[in-house]
Design goal:
It is built from eight helices and seven strands. The model has no long low-confidence stretch (mean pLDDT 94). 48% of the residues are buried. Strand 1, helix 1 and strand 2 form a beta-alpha-beta unit. By secondary structure, it is an alpha/beta fold. A seven-stranded parallel sheet has the order 3-2-1-4-5-6-7, sandwiched between helices. 42% of the residues lie in helices and 17% in strands.
Length: 259
Amino acid sequence: MGAHGYGLRGKVALVTGGSRGIGRAIARRLGREGATVAVGYARDEVAAREVVEGIRTDGGRAFALRAELGRHGDAAALWAAFDAEIGAHASGGGVDIIVNNAGIGRSSDLATLTEEDFDTVFAVNVRAPFFVVQHGLRRLRDGGRIVNISSGAARLAMPEIIAYGATKGALDTFTLNLAKQLGPRGITANSVAPGVVDTDVNAGWLRGNPEAEAYAASIAALGRVGQPEDIADIVAFLASDDARWVTGRVIDATGGAGL
């Protein structure tokens, strides 16, 4: 069990985009709670293996799973890779927790966003999670958990990243429908919506820039920039039996942005 006592021993978790940032923190946290973690990654095998080794060093079980999302057939390929690996790490061949964390942002506004970038951000942020769940349903055990990583941009008007915000709004609607459809199987589905988080994705404009850091902190009612662990702790709760009566919700994880 982890520090907060969410016992996930015997559970199997898949975390897409698990090699960096929020996904890395989620994978590490679920591993500390006792879950066997499939760490999905697109290209950075070194980073993914670092996460796996970190989980193993903490006494957990994990394996890396290469799956580049955003292409037709990506979900089928991801689950084929999972099927080929899972037997060596856990019995039963199924999964209990699916965390759709992989995502990309396109920081363009209405006037400058290209059709290609629009298609790409929707392919990774909406289509991939949809089909990851569709293909995963026959592997997802009753009583399982689906957690989709959304964004505060689905709630707050941010025209400078209009398509990104739209993808997260779509993801929240997907979550709502999953909760209704899968409820009879005891499967919960929830979204977690972070605000500004100190990750590599935001490093270019945030880290080492006092003005940017002060602005990002000022947005949140709690007065600081989010950390990946802030999000991972919420996901650990939603993945646990303690959250058995929570489904179809968007959990705001912005530190109170835009209140």
